[in-house]
Predict the structure.
Amino acid sequence: MIEKHLEIVGCNHRKISIDYRYLETSVKMIPVIYVHGYKGFKDWGASNLVANSFADKGFFYLKFNFSHNGVTSEHPIDFVDLEAFGNNNYEIELNELGLVIDWLESSILNVDFTKLSVIGHSRGGGIVLLRTAQDRRINKAITWASVCDFNRRFTPDFSDWEDTGVQYVYNARTLQMMPLYYQFYENFLKNFAKLDILSQCRRIDKPLLIVHGTEDHAVSIDEAMEIHDLVNGSSLVKILNAGHTFGAVHPYDQNTLPTDLIHVIKSSVSFLTDI
């Protein structure tokens, strides 16, 4: 298997770290771009095993870190840049998915760009939905445990956040208090039309697969139902008794994938290869 790592310039001159992998072939491959979620990164948990699974099936599989997700090239699985994390926002992530697509489109890699597909997990699923509605280059899209509305993620009372300019989110895994600067909400309001997942979903006219666990306590399966109802012709796959990460954890020290995640991959591969 061929695996490459590189960086491109993202928003605010910060770096987007990319890795991609594939099996050498003379046939043009279907390119798949994976988008991580909130407090996530491209090497979280079983992500590399997932990437290998797609590559083994003949796909060109690319995953990347948003430039403001808090990890760095030197520390790819640790949140060492909390200033970047605090200055992240949905618009940055939407734009950076576009930048990664731009890079792939301009590359000389052996891919069939007309079959470009994107996969997003959790918050990354919301970014994928927005980008699919707004970017004609995307041929197919898949969401894994996706949110359906960014607006619901904000607390009703913003007074303290606005007064202090920052609020902190506790990361139970790393035991860190992670900052979110008030610009996050201000930027959302400023760009509400293009960041409104519910209204943007009505514009999606490309094949969409929605995968969600029935026991997801982080993002209710009701949100998957909302997306399914809004996107005409979309497909919904429910993974019975699965949680938000489909059995994966971080760190992940197993050599095989969790059963639920295997089901997710099988459903996704079937969707991507269905003519």
